[in-house]
Amino acid sequence: MKIIKNGWDFFQDQILGMHWLKDLIGKLLVKAGLGEGRFPGEFLHFFLYDIIKIFVLLAVLIFVISYIQSYFPPEKSRKIMGRFHGIWANLIGALLGTVTPFCSCSSIPIFMGFTSAGLPLGVTFSFLISSPMVDLGSLVLLMSVFGGKIAFAYVIVGLVIAVIGGTIIERLHMEDQVADFIRQAPNVEVASPSLTIADRMDYAKNQVVVTVKKVAPYIVVGVIIGAAIHNLIPEYIVRSILGKQTWYAVPLATAVGVPMYADIFGTIPVAESLLAKGAGLGTILSFMMAVTTLSLPSMVMLSKAIKKKLLGTFIGIVCIGIIIVGYGFNMIIYITRGDRKMQIDYEKYARIFKVMSDPKRLKIIDMLSEGELCACKILEEFHITQPTLSHDMKLMCDLGIVKARKEGKWMQYSLDIDVMN
After folding, report:
1. DSSP structural state of residue 99
2. How would DSSP label each residue in 345-414?
3. Residue of 40, 46, 17 lying closest to 226 (CA atoms)
4. CB contact set of 150 (below 8 Å; sequence gap of 6+)
5. At 5, phi and psi to the nearest 5?
6. 3-class SS of residue 190
7. φ/ψ (deg, to 5) at 152
8. What values do phi and psi take at 277, rounded to 5?
9. Helix or strand or coil: residue 306?
10. Distance CA 360, CA 59 (A)
11. pLDDT in tens, 213-232
């Protein structure tokens, strides 16, 4: 079991997370005189690391997924979904959405084709919800940033929203709310061409070029925003607005995400920075789902295919589902951590009070209460050597009151707010 765990940790940290790249960029910036602890250096470190990592993973993922997609052209997908009925049909529609286009605007034409071909409305809406929200690429990229548990949780709740949303729409019998030109379109079957392995490889390569060109601006903007949040916005501001105990954080994140137009690859850098600054996990997931599923441009396009009543119903169902998911995740985290708080370890608290009785360490804690700091910044406030500081920080890290992570050659320290509270 230990070998499997070590192998998984290496895959997640070094292959998906590319921590080696993070360390390499940090060392190069230090040599260039832009070391950690100074604004340009930290900003550039975040920007370069995330840009390179996301584009490399994106290119590989799109190639693999597009190769898989070549086996599921729209006509074949329609036939597969047509074999199932009831909630199983909705589930198949949602699952097929995971191997289809990477943004909502690309999913709508396929949704229109499925609907005009006579597939049940609920099934096509399950596909429409899951296609931009959940895909294999998002699963892998989420794992590279947030870890396997959060990535799988995001995918599972996304599929649940897609299945439930499609089922509710089907039960409402709103077929008359589909635009006439779609309902009256002739059902013409087009034979899928037989592709060789070389054809599929060429298709996958072409999809890499087309998709990267399409999403590149959103990724760059997302990484810039993420770097700005990471380096410029104090932690207490993010916690006060988007913390898991702020009741309005989830609907606010959902409402802010709807007008935006981006795919999940562009939202991940922003989500990464918000999570590091103390935003609730459920709040972040709600923001990502709203951006990818209910973007304003895609809703404008969808309004040409369905009437206002069905469009409003679709938006309402998805928004309610996203908000429930957000509150649910925040509540689960709050309850699990609350249970740990009830089990008071007096010996541990005695050790914490002993460590904090040192005036120097109290001042460090006061400094960290304003947000994450580089070790170099802390050293500037004291006439001590780096080994002495490392000793003090190790004591506080071992007790769990301070969290540490390495960027380049410097350690970054922050308070564990839950323990301190």
Report:
1. G
2. -HHHHHHHHHHHTSHHHHHHHHHHTTS-EEHHHHHTTSS--HHHHHHHHHHHHHTTSEEEEEETTEEEEE
3. 46
4. 142, 281
5. -60, -45
6. coil
7. -65, -35
8. -90, 0
9. strand
10. 48
11. 877 888 888 888 888 887 77
- Tokens (6 digits) for 382: 């004291």
pLDDT at 105: 63
235 in helix, strand or coil?
helix
**Do residues 96 and 127 lie in contact, with contact meaning Cβ atoms separated by under 8 Å?**
yes
DSSP letter at 193 equals: P
Task: For residues 262 and 132, give the distance between their C-alpha atoms in angstroms, rounded to a whole number.
Answer: 10
Is residue 16 within 8 A of residue 57, CB to CB? The reply is yes
Cα–Cα distance for residue pair 169/314, rounded to 1 Å: 8
Query: How many C-beta neighbours within 10 Å does residue 386 have?
Result: 13
User: Among all chains, which residue has been given the structure tokens 């409305």?
Assistant: 121
The label of the residue with tokens 């070998």 reads 3
DSSP H helical ranges for 188-263: 197-232, 235-242, 249-257
Give 15's DSSP letter: I
415 sits in which H/E element: strand 410-415
Mean pLDDT confidence for 235-249: 77
**Contact 170/121 with Cβ under 8 angstroms?**
yes
What span, in angstroms and rounded, lies between the C-alpha atoms of 371 and 277?
A: 8
| Contact indicator for 86, 275 with CB cutoff of 8 Å | no
Distance CA 374, CA 407 (A): 9
Round to whole Å and give the CA distance between 155 and 286: 13
Structure confidence at residue 168 (pLDDT)? 93
Closest C-alpha among 310, 370, 371 to residue 175: 310
pLDDT digits (tens, 9 = 90+) for 77-102: 777 777 777 888 888 888 887 776 55
Cα–Cα distances in Å, from 273 out to 50, 379, 404?
11, 25, 16
